[in-house]
Every structure is written in structure tokens, then in C-alpha cells.
## 1
Amino acid sequence: MEVLSSLATGFAVVLTPTHLFLIFLGCLLGTLFGALPGLGPINGVAILLPICYTLGLPVESSLIMLAGIYYGAEFGGRISSILLNVPGDAGAVFTCLDGYPMAQKGLAGPALALSGVASFIGGSIAIVGLTFFAPLLASVAIYFGPAEYFVLMVFAFATIGALMGSNPVKSLIGVTIGLIIGVVGVDSTTGVLRFTLGEAELYDGFEFLIVIVGFFAVSEIMLMLEHHSSEDFEMPKITRVYVTMKELLYCKWTMVRSSLIGFVVGTLPGTGASIASAVSYTIAQKISDKEGTFGKGDMRGLAAPESANNACAGGALVPMLTLGVPGSGTTAVLLGALMLYNINPGPMLFVEQPKLVWGLIASMYIGNVMLLIINFPMVRIFTKILQVPYWLLVPSVIVLAFVGVYSVNMSTFALLLSLILGVLGYFLRKLHYPMAPVILGFVLGKIMEDNLRRAFAMSGGEIGIFFQGTINYILWGLTLFILFVPMLSKMVAKRYALAKK
Amino acid sequence: MEVPFSYDPLGPTAFPIALGTVLALLSVVIIVKPREVHFPALNTNLKTLLIVLLLFVYQLSFNVLGFLLSTALLVFCIAKIFKGTTPQALSAGVGVSGVVYLIFSFLLEVPLPVGSLFAKLLGVSS
């Protein structure tokens, strides 16, 4: 089989001491970032990306390590959720619901162990899915022209609007803000300067690192001031850090089902771990919660979101690698990382960069096993790290982020821009605007505009080009479907409520 | 912005104008159907402002005072804001700036500014 031989090429890339070490380092740092309250996968990748870039690593090494940080952080997010009831990021909220009650019942150790296994199963199922599904999608995506690409972006933004965050209008405003930030700079087709305010440093537009460090590191620091009360928490005692066979078998179907849900949700452009874990938790509750134990420390309620958010990380890589449209906020950052290396993401990636793509996929198999192995003996060490005081954590994070940006640009103007965007991000987050759509808009903006204009150039200004061809029909159909999903689910919920009465 | 290219029927203005229109429409929706907004207590607002000011000063002083001194000062102040004691904040300042300096200038070989002020005093080029 072709897939297996490609995968073998990938393992050949990965099985070098350097790469194994980078996977290990990525997983370790990722778990750390996931475990620290307030810092999630997206901050982890955002803060470490500039450092990775300055290290001068080849692109596949950087990507392997950054991806390790990504799924490692999804792995580590459970630690502070279970022990402190503080989710590292939105994706870990549902882990708190049953994880924290378990810890309070004196089951902190089993909760950590079970969620570790659930994460591993979620991750594994997703990687297998990625291995077989991504090349398939890539072979279809080769037939995408500019018009198809543009409609694909419309589909992506419809998904973000319909599924992400509590308020679709706010998600869409976020996307638009991201797109507008992406417009700044020299127009690539005509050479016209747009919105540069005469500032020579803005001719190339907002640089990716500046934007993510601003939106994720700077605004995070400002927000941390408002809820950094975790010192008052009493750390629960950790007893046995393993699960029994009985406990595992009790959750087996929940884990498999949630992994599949997480993977599918992950492949939808722009959705991410928060939706994956929310959907899988709700479904697990509907199916399994006969005695009303969910939310009071039910093991299945812990296994469901944990397998889902790790599966989602694998799923989110599918559209990123095949279509160049990231499946989540963190993959948007990874996509930006590829662009930093002048690699054009899209369907040709599998053809032009097989070593990069298959190396990344192979590294995830290894990383996932590594995470499982390091998590059991090291869980106690990670719980110690949770006690790092904020007076040390916060300034360290900000200095690392700022120096990373400085060392790539060698200019303090970059720091100023980061700061300005950080303040903007702070207000947006204060007003409950989700940040991932902003980054998605920013990353996709240029591709979207280029394809729009190329499509119009091809058709000589005729709009009909967006409404012809099978792929366009399918994409428009999917877009309409996604837009109606919230309405449908409301209707179903109403029926359900009526039936209960 | 007049552009004489015929192969690009859309030109550089259409996309930004479309974005502006979308943003305006969405803003109208938000204004017409507002949802609750919770602002933080004033106390934290002032501290947040202070952090922004500190980062702004940091950015200005970066080249003048040099990486080590400006970073140490920044870390000291932020550590104080996050309720570290003075000895804790001092050690954080010295520790963080020192470790980051070592990592970047020796491990990553990224030159960080020595500071034009010191360069002048010592008579070396910065």
C-alpha cells in the first residue's frame, strides 16, 4: 500500500537522535504549557515558535517539535483541570466537570491516569485517521482551482461562525478583524501600499510572529492579573497513579466514540478542541448518564472530553496539511510557521514536501507513545510545576515571547506592534470575542484574496465561476448545511424536551 | 488607487472595501442585539494599565539600557505587581534576564543589545 510506504519514509525522517530528542522536548514543553493554568496549546506554540525559528532548525524539525507542543499541551491541559479546577484553555473546560469532582473524592491519581490513557487513545485514533484520510483528501484537493479555493474559505468562515464560541456574530467579527490585519502591506498583485500609514516597517504587513505574540502572549499576561487566585487552592493528595483494567473497560466505548467525534470535529476548518470536547461530553452524557452521575465525578465524563480534544488535534491537521486551511486556532499558528519558512501550504504539500508531511505524521505516532510513557512517572513532577508562583511565571513568559519576536526582527518596532495588538486582543477577549477566528482570518486572508482575484481574472470578471463545477456545488452545499446545523440542533433539542415531558 | 492592469478586474481596493462593509454590518448586528458585558473591577484595570505602560517603557529602553538592565527592571516590576516580595522580585529580575541572555546569546547566537548608554560610557560600539 502506498500509504504505508509513505509512512515508512516518514519514520526514516524521524528516527534520528535529533528528531527523537525534539519530539521528546516538544511533548515535554507542551505538557508543561498545557499544565500551567491559563496557558494552553495556542499560547505554547505562539511563545515557542519564535525561539524555534531563531534556533535555525530545518522546517521539518521545527514543525515536528511545534506539533509535539500542540498535542502535548492537549495532553497536559487535564492536569490543572483535574487538580485545580482551572482549565488551561477553552478545550479543557469539560475536563473540569468530572475530573475535579473525582479529585475531591480522593481519586486525583486515578483521574490523572485515566485521562492520560483517554488522551492516548484519542490521539492514536486520530493519527491513524490522519494517515489514511489526509492523502485521500489531498488527492481530491489537487483539482481545486482559485474559485474552489475561495468557496472553501467561505465554507471555513461559515463553520467558524456557526460552530465556534457562544455568539456567531462575534466569531465572524473576529474573522473579519483578522482578515483586515492581513490586508496591511504591499499588495502582491499591483504593488500598491495598503494601510501602511507610511511606516516602512509595515510594508511587508504585520508579521505573523508579531500578531500571535501580541494576541496570545501579551493579552494573556494582562488577563492573568484578573484571575490568578490559584494560590488559594489546596492541592489534592495524589494516591495511586494508574488505572485498573476494570475502570478502563468501563470507559472503553466512551473513549472510542469520543475519539471519533473529536477527529471529525477537528477536520472541520476552524473549529478546534473546545467544540470537540463539548460535543463529545454532551453525547456521552445523553447516552451513558442513566444514574445522573455526570458532573459529580463520573469516569466516563472525564474520558469523553479528554479523548476528544486529543483526537481533535490530529483531525485539525488534516485540512491544514491537505487544503492549507487550518482546523483549529493552534493549527493556524502551525500554518503560519510553515509560511515563515516560505512553504506554501495546500494540496501540493503532499507532492512537493513528502518528507515534511510524512515526517510530521510519523513523529506523532512516536510522540503519542512518549507522552503516555512520560506522563505516568512524571505526573508528580508536573503537579509540582503547577505551584510555580505567578511572580516568576508571568514575567518569564513575557520576556521569552518578546525576546523571541525581537530576535527574529531585530527591531523594537516589532515589540511595539506586538504590544498594540496585545492591547487590542485584551479588549476583544474582555468582550468575549474568541481569538482563534482572528488568527484564522489573519492567516487565511491573503490566500483568500489572492484566489478571489485570480478567479475573477480567469473568468474576466464573471461571478459565475464560483458557481460551476462539482467541487463548488459540494462546497456550497456543505456551507449551507453548516449554517443550518445550529438551527437543526435547536429544533432537535426542543423535540427532545417535549418528548421528555 | 487607480491601477492600469486589465488582468486583475478586482484591483487592490475591492477586498478591503468588502471587509469594511462586512465589519460594519456585523457591528450593526452587535449594536442592535447587544449581550451582557462584564468589565473587571477598577483595581485590576489600573494594574493592567500599569503592565501596558511597563511594556511600553521596556520597548523604548530596550536599545538604550540594553537587554540585561531593561529586562531585569521589567521582570522586577511585573513580579511586584503579581505580589512577589521584594527579594523574590529582585531574584526573579536577575535570574530571568540572566538566563534568557545566556540562552539567546550563547545557545541561539542571537545578539541582544548591550545598550547604547553603556556603549557610550565604556567607549565601545554598541
## 2
Amino acid sequence: MAQMTMIQAITHALDLELARDEKVLVFGEDVGNNGGVFRATEGLQKKYGEERVFDTPLAESGIIGLANGLAIQGFRPVPEIQFFGFVFEAFDQIASQIARLRYRSGGRYYAPVTIRSPFGGGVRTPELHSDSLEGLFLQTPGVKVVIPSTPYDAKGLLLSAIRDNDPVIFLEHMRLYRSFRQEVPEEEYTIPLGQANVVREGKDVTIVTYGAMVGVSQKAADAWAKDKGLEAEVIDLRTISPIDIDTITESVKKTGRAIVVQEAQRSAGVGAEVIAQINEHAIYHLEAPVLRVTPPDTVYPFGMIEDEWLPTQHSVVAALNKVMSL
Amino acid sequence: MSKTVSEHTVPYVQVLDENGNVTDNELLPNLTDDQLRELMKRMVFTRILDQRAIKLTRQGRLGFYAPVSGQEASMIGSEFATEKEDFVVPGYRDLPQSLYHGYPLYKLFLYSRGHQEGGRVPEDVNVIMPQIIIGAQIVQTAGIALGFKLKGEKHVTITYTGDGGTSQGDFYEGMNFAGAYQAPAVFFVQNNQYAISVPREKQTAAETLAQKAIAAGIPGVQVDGMDILGVYAATKQAVDRARAGEGPTMIEAVTFRYGPHTMSGDDPTRYRTKETEATWEKRDPLVRFRSYLQAKGLWTDEEEQQFIEEAKDTINDALKQADAVEKMTIEGLIDAMFEEPTATLKRQRAEITGEGAN
Ligand SMILES: Cc1ncc(C[n+]2csc(CCOP(=O)(O)OP(=O)(O)O)c2C)c(N)n1
């Protein structure tokens, strides 16, 4: 076992998969010699050569289109979009091409592509680097969307994603890259896609969340317990498409109350989907409406007011108090 | 049977060699002594601004910043060939061109800090906020240029990107549109050899970037980007053509950035050598142009020192001005979304300010 940051766990997972399966290819802007702008691919080109780990020209549509073509040729591409805001440049290739390859070819071709990309706020990047765009892909049939919140999960989920025979968008929150270390086994292990994780047990309210908001929610739950003597259960979705409604339902049956915490803007996102599914599967167990803690429906703000815009421990506690009073 | 249906060339433009000697008298631009001195002053200011901005970024007093030293001739020389009414459409590194086209320096600092006010350019200044998405400005330029044409205004739009930017589909789409509509546009590529860490040779198999213009049916020119008179001459020609209704041009300026890609953790020692850096430093645009001006008796070291002091004062004043601007608010952000906030946004605004119910 070793203590790893999330970024180390990701490099380690890529290393394991490159070694295990020669069809795995890693490419993107600056991922080769430079090891990626966050060093997620550090050392991999040296180890596996320029044919398996390579820099691409600066063109996101080209990168994902290339992945599509390579998938047709039987490879397992792991392309990187340098920052998730640039995914718009590749949106066509993902949503209307990769996500539909299996369907369009009647199953003859499929796309075992894992698109990795850093995203997430609170690190003062320029415009369009931090945006939480995962909701767009929740509305895109044919892709899975994974968002780990710990180094351990990042490794296990990334191995599953690369081995999955369908396209997976693997989003790495920039603020979590180096924020803490955790024991991560050296050997292979996988965490199934589509399975949420109860990271804190509680009987009074369920908090459904993912990504960097998992840590924020856990802290809020701890503070709340101290202050109010009430226990919130925290569910880390880990995969936001598909959503593990069974785990959520089970929890809501126990607590009778829920809030959803997300970094993305409010409307029509992961939170909205979770609430819709709770309504479908557990409405008779609810004692109060499900609340959302999110930023408002604005563009992701310029650096100066990020911290005020993003949900905080304080706003989560406020929502917990409110849902208890309803 | 095979025959040649079309042949093209890419001209190379240089006016001053590395020692500041004139290599091409015919291209030597017709500039007054004052204008020549002004070009040098602007390059000196830009170098000082760059050094200061790098320090300020390290101190946390600026936010996002992409260094420009080495590229002064490309930036200053090209913008100098435009007129005030012309439009400058910058990428994230192109702050000097924006500045000399009228973007107030303190607003550029606000832009760097991530303040909304940094994007609000004065009404009479034809510049927009630097573009982060690589290539987006190229397609928009076709539209801004076409707009001038449709309105019957004889103005030109110049846009900037890097060597990496020429790989984006948008780059070709923008040039192709401008060519198809004969829009008055100039596409100025600063080939500073690296797109973050990826060298120009790995970016494209094309021998020059300028030749990418040919596929769009517009002229492509390569210029020594460390030679301010060459850059000026090439851009002036392109701007004049566009203004005369003869359509767009693409210019590739061969240049170099001395610093890291941006101040956010890039380490150039990973992808380039000391020798490469030394080779380019020998071609320094300031040294070359200084020699030229001094030989003509138009520049002294004492004057330069004085300009440097003035530059520092100007920068300090702009910083103070930036510091004095009121902080952005979430309410302001919400209000910036639409002309009138939607009902949803009004409710969300009230939630944040604590006014009214949910
Ligand atoms: C669409 C898009 N993709 C990727 C990036 C990330 N990125 C920022 S600058 C850069 C390299 C740009 O190189 P180049 O165009 O040569 O310009 P230079 O920075 O060298 O001036 C990259 C990949 C971006 N900003 N936008």
C-alpha cells in the first residue's frame, strides 16, 4: 500500500492499464513529454513510447474523432481534454459520434473510449477551465460519466472505465488532485461503474452529492452533528450517469429527508435528475421536499468571486436546517 | 495524364537582420522618426510590463497571465499597422496589442484578476476581451470583418492566435469564410515555436503555417517576427489590401516567447533546451531595433532608462486604479446574464441576498 494523491492514483491506474493491455493508448495536448499540464501522465511516454502515449495537435474535435477512429480499429483510447471547458470543441464528436457508434453500427463497432478531463472550481483558473459541464452529458445517451472524489476511488473507477466497452467520461476535480493523500493499494482493483458509496452514515437526512462537494458535505454533516446532534447520511454518487438510485432510495427510506449538493448551476442538472428519481422511487418515504444546494444559473464566474459562488459547508448546513424544519 | 492545376508560394518578409542592418530596402516602411521611436518605446514598455506582470502574478496581485517577452516585435509592429477604427480580436497572450489599441491598462489588470469589469471595454475602443478558447476568435473575426463590409465602413479586423491555434478547425473555418466573403480581415499567427510543450514540428506536417492560407484561397505570408519593421511592413500591406476591398490575408510571424507558457505552473525546461533559448535571444527584437535606431541617431541609452522609469510609474498608476475598482458581486453576476433577469434568476438572486421568500 502506498499513500497517494488523486493525481498519483490516476497516473498509477493509467500505468497499470498501459502495461496490461497493449491496445490502450493515451493521448492529448501536452500529455507526452510534458506529462500533462497537471502531470497526470508523467513518465508514461518514457515508459511506453511515443506510439502509445503521444501529444496531439491542438484540436479537441480532432482528438475525440481520432479516438473514435482508433476504437473502430480495436484500440482502447484514453484521450485527455486538457480542461473540461474545452469539451465544447469536441461535443459533436462525443455526443453525436462516439456515443452513438454502437447504435449506428448495430453493435458491429463500439467505443471503449475513456475521456479524461480536469474540471471543477475553487482553483482560480481562467474562464471555461473550471465549469461543471457534467449535466450536459447526463442528457447524452450512450456515455457514462464518472466523477471520483478520493484517490482510492479514482484508481478503481479509472480501471473500470478503461475496461468498459462503452464510452466513459472521467472527470477529475482539480481541487482534489493534490488536496489529500490516501492509502491506495498497488495491485489492481476495480470499483463498478454506477455504484454509489455511502461515505457517512446517518439517520436524519440524506445528502446526495459527488466530486469535491463530497468533502464539503462530510464536513457540513460533522459540524451539524456537533451543533444539532443530528446525523446526516452522505452518499457519494461516484458515477453520475447512470445514477445509483437503489442506494439513494434505501437511504431516503431510512431518513425520510434529502438534499442534493452540486457544484454545477442549478437547473436541469444532476441534482434535478436525482430529485426526479427520488420522486419516482421513494416519494412516499419523504417527509419534506428534497432541496438543492447549488450555485445560481449564471455562467461560472471569473476568478474573483468563485468562492462566494460555489456551495460551501455553511450553505449545506443551512439546507440541512431548512429541510428539517419543513 | 497529370498536369499542374495550381501553384502557390509563400513569401518571406524581413527588413532588419539580427544586427539591425537593413536587408530589404524596398520593404523599408515609410515611417517618420517619431513613429520609429514610438515603436521602440512601445516595445520597451511591453518588456517592462511583462517583467512586472510576472512578478505581480507570483505575488498573487494578478491572476492569469501569459508572458510575452520575445514577441514584442510581432505584437507591437502588427497593431501599429492598424487604425483606431479597426478591430483587434486578441487571444489570451495578446494584451499589448489590446493596450495600444485603446484597452485601458487597469482593465487588463482586472481581466487578469478575473473581474467582470476587465471585459468592459470603453465604447469607442474596438477591442474585445482576450479569448481563452483557442480558435474561437478566428471565426468571429470573419463576422466582425464582414460586418464592416456590410456596413460600408472601410475598416479592417485583425486577430491573433499561436502556432497551436492553427490546428483548430475554427482556424480554417474563419479564414475560409473571410475568403469566401472577401471580408477585410487579417489573421495574424504568432508562431512562437511551442503550444505549451508541443513544438511546431509536432503540431503539423506543413512546412510553413502561412501556407495554410492557400487552402482557404487567401494570401499567406511568413515574416521574421523578431523584426518589427518586417512585421509592420507585412501587416501594413495586408491591412491596406483589406481596406481596399481586396480581401483577407494570413500572416505567420516567426517568433519566440522567452518565459513559460503561462504563470500557472508551466516549466519550459521540460520541452526546450538552453541552446534553443540562446539562439532566439540573439534575435531579440529590442536589441535589433535599438541598434537600427542608434545607428540613425534616434535613440540613446539614457532615454531608454527614462522611458523605463516612466513605464514603471504608468504601471503603478494602473494598478492603483485597478485596486480602487469595487469588487464584483454575485448579484452583479446574476444581473449580467440577461437584459432583464428571468423569473428563475430573480428568485435565485433573492435567495442569495436574503430578500423575499424562496
Ligand atoms: C480550445 C482550447 N483548447 C486547449 C486550450 C488550452 N491551451 C491554452 S494555451 C494552449 C497552447 C496554445 O499554443 P499556441 O496556439 O501556439 O499559442 P501560444 O500560447 O504559444 O501563444 C493550450 C493547449 C485552450 N485554451 N482552448
